[in-house]
Amino acid sequence: MSPVPTITEVRARSVLAPLSRPLRTASGSIPAAPLLLLDVRTDADVVGHAWLFGYAAETLAPMAALVEQIAPSLVGQPLVPVQRMRDFEARFRLLGMQGLLGMVVAGIDMALWDALGKVLDQPVVSLLGGAPVALRAYDSFGMVDPVKDEALLRKSVEAGFTGIKIKLGYPDLAQDVAITGGVREIIGPDVELMVDFNQSLDPPEACRRIQRLEGFNLYWVEEPVAAADLAGHALVRRRTGARVQTGENWWFPRGLQAAISASACDFAMLDIMKIGGVTGWMGAVGLAEGASLPVSSHLFVEASAHTLAVTPTADWLEYLDLAGPVLTNPCRPVDGYVTAAGPGLGITWNEPAIAEFAA
What we know:
The chain is an alpha/beta fold. The chain has helices spanning 60-74, 81-91, 99-120, 124-127, 150-158, 173-187, 203-212, 230-240, 252-261, 277-290, 301-307, 351-356; strands spanning 7-25, 28-42, 47-53, 135-140, 163-167, 192-196, 218-222, 244-246, 267-270, 295-297, 317-319, 337-338.
């Protein structure tokens, strides 16, 4: 075996993982999580794992096909994640890395880091120069009914979560106000409350609704307008004074840089699948630090617990368990905090569950 292990195989499998709390948003409901599971095998007899969230089941087949097409170029290459990402950037420069291709590249990057951590018997956070630390997490809900979901909301607070996020964007403003007020009453004044419009409003309507929500002491207002509308986000900030969160749809670090240049947000929410995996995340956090932007994670609890721990302006980890049903040791919060597990990213597959939920 060479001093640096080499990649011998890359494969992908598709599952529809059941959600304990089906996710309702202004754009529709997600009853089960469409996940693409990635395996990167090395000649060190170690396999790196990562998973991707496809948002819709229709994305799984084309993402798997992309993995199959890319895999031959990786076989025989050294297990060096940063250099492999540079190779991807050169190979796809004319096309650009975004959409399904960007997601697949980021997933492979995560699997490479997981494999490297396993080879060295270290958690990825240690490879990045940090240590596993307890990160405060908020419990992430979809659209809720304060009456029907009161027990679930109270359970989150009793479990130690000091932040709760709900999704808004109901057909009329009165519903948004009533839902937000009902949730604030349940969780009390000491638990931070975030709201997420999931890009459902135009800037004038976003301003109108946010101004009506001022009395509920919101920690942030997330994606009130289309993610790509950086000018719209900046306008909402100026007109309402609300603290605007966005970023889960930025592609690679340059997406963050564009938002900074547009003064589009008060917070940055990095999605490790869209920001470019572990390698892309590390490139983005320096930009966030330079702009004094607090950074929170989007989904991907297992991997984000590693990268957020070495983020200089770390804020919140989003707790929304998508992959738990297909993992042998899901990453669970303790008293509202999440700590990175290892070796690697701490991801191991539950093979019987994968067989049961295969898509």
